[in-house]
Amino acid sequence: MKVIVDQHKCVASGQCVLTAPEVFDQREEDGIVVLLTETPPDHLMDDTRQAAILCPAQAIWVAEQEKQEGEQ
Amino acid sequence: MSTISASGTDVPPAEVPDYPMTRAAGCPFDPPPALHTLQEQAPISRVRLWDGSTPWLVTRYEDVRTLLADPRISSESTHPHYPHQSPATKERRRQSRTFITMDDPEHARLRRMVTATFAIKQVEALRPTIQKIVDGLIDAMLAGPRPVDLVQAFALPVPSLVICALLGVPYADHDFFQANSRILVKRTSTPEQAQAATQQLIDYLDRLIGDKLAHPTDDLLSALAERVRGGELSRREAANMGMLLLIAGHETTANMIALGTLALLQHLDQLARLRESDDPKLIASTVEELLRYLTIVHTGRRRVALADIDTDGVTIRAGEGVILANDVGNRDPAAFPDPDRLDVARNPRHHVAFGFGVHQCLGQPLARVELQVVYGTLYRRIPTLRLAVDPDRIPFKHDGNVYGVYELPVTW
Ligand code: SF4
After folding, report:
1. Where is the signal peptide (chain A) (predicted)?
2. Contacts of B49 (CB under 8 A, 6+ apart)
């Protein structure tokens, strides 16, 4: 799984940080999303997907790797 | 001809229902039954507002969420077909423009000036302060007379003390700004009353910003004043933003505290689950569930379509008003199984009580922490807390843009 964020879209709602604090952080000066890891470990995948769903600004994309598709 | 076009057919005006709709008698927490009927039978349909206009009303969860995130849907309240909640709200927005009712890039420019204050870490750092405020108010309640009105003694002071500290507004002035803000969120206020209340609040905040320019302190208004000095923000914009945060910061959370308490007192099994657990996860899910179940911003999110949008067999035309009914959306069985049941253990994080899209509530991290501290403390410290009057004597804010109770007499 690979995670991509768009800081221009982010509205700093913090939903991602609440959902997957190991993967997302917020910039101190304006609360805009910061990606901590592009390739989160397996045990964080569900939370990361959940963060993408909850993000109100649709600023988070999760690209699944081939072999994991169908496993969801 | 005095007919309007809805999904290609002419509908006589009489068949367009008035909005907002009325809740069922004796059922204070559930959305109006007519909204459920619409959700099942006509999920996108016309409603009639106070000014005779007939915007679209969207009632299904998935549609509410999708349209709130659709860039073709505008928040611009100066649009001639923007569906305002009331004459008072329309007047306030005319006088005091804020990023809530602007589109990007203006919205993003202004919103980003205040987002740092509401970032998760920043708000978490406030948790001990909020705990102290909550404990202090409970101490005072326990030492005072019984019964007591929970709204005045607790629900209003908690968020007011917090937002005043954050903004750098003297709490001693709370009677003044609470009275004015009450006028602004009441649907029955006249435009003249709203005009006067807005002016008073703007003058007040402008004066404060003047003080902060001369003597900056460590708070949000001082930070805004700094931007005024730097030429990034006009003084009027700063005052408008301060007023928005001051009103939003206490009206919503105060109603969640009082109405949430009433909901728990009417669902004692759920209250017992909350009280008997010290798992912060259960406290957090209780907060989310009450946000979903009560959805106190109960007259929908207001928007205007910028382009023709085809959805659910309906075409919303460019320039038409759209209301996204997040209250009944949060009771949609397609998104929340058994939606009318209050279940503190379900964690409905995907609810739309804070809206969705780029306008999703800026203060939600703060609201969450305040409510977590309140729900995790109040019923544990006063385990015998109960209503002091018959439930049907409690006055509800049916006439408010934000739902809640005017009074909640409790004893223990
Ligand atoms: S959830 Fe989305 S909008 Fe909110 S902080 Fe994270 S990336 Fe930004």
Report:
1. none
2. B18, B19, B55, B83, B84
